[in-house]
Design brief:
- The protein is an alpha/beta fold and about 280 residues long.
- It folds into two domains: about 60 residues, Helicase, Ruva Protein, domain 3 (Orthogonal Bundle), CATH 1.10.8; about 200 residues, Rossmann fold, CATH 3.40.50.
- Helix content is about 35%, strand content about 20%.
- Helix 1 crosses helix 2 and helix 2 runs antiparallel to helix 4.
Length: about 280
Amino acid sequence: MNDVRRLLAAATGHLAGADSRIEAERLLAHVLGRSRAWLFAWPEFEPSAAQRACFEQLVDARRRGEPIAYLTGRREFWSLDLAVTPDVLIPRPETELLVELALARIAPDRDCVVADLGTGSGAIALALARERPRARVLATDASMAALAVARGNAERLGIANVAFAHGDWCAALGDARFDLIVSNPPYIEAGDPHLGAGDLRYEPASALVSGSDGLDAIRAIVAATSAHLVRGGWLLLEHGWDQAGRVHELLSAQDFADVHSMCDVGGHERVTLARH
């Protein structure tokens, strides 16, 4: 028999790691067009031969290291079901800290204008736009392919208070000014050994690597942001676990005020905020 129960057991044995069972469930649920809960309710269901073959191909791809998000074309972020492709960075749970901190600075009962630089799949921009309907959010990216993914997510999710612009960091903003600018730019050092491991091997290098010290993109953003923030406006930047001190220095050199960092769930300073 080739029912759900046996297929999952076999796939779990082929996959490595503590999450092998969950990964097998996600892949089979994707192939069947069902939820993981459905798999638990119908363990005796027998997929078709074509479905089994597709599932086995996905399991083999995952065993080689291909990210689950790219294999299924989906990733959840801030309770949003986002489409993802190899053209965009896979949204991480730790980036939800950036969203939380931004929302705390966007009043729900007032109009405001927000920019998300380097939007990728649109995860941050769409989360902010969904939570703050009175905000007008501009999502930018230097990659047209990434913008197509983000725009598609906005349309599919029915989030209308977000627009899109093509360009490199602040160059995409024109002469507009914003109440808040947020970014999760690339911040990994070129040559970092982690780039050759895990999901990072498959993600776009342009969304990961930023110069010899990982700070090239953040330097560009910090240097140009003042011209695009209203007085008292906020800049929020996600960065590497050990980069907060250097990001503080960059912001202070540009006369930003109230520079401080917030820790992620692991206790690492992950997001730095500053007021114009």
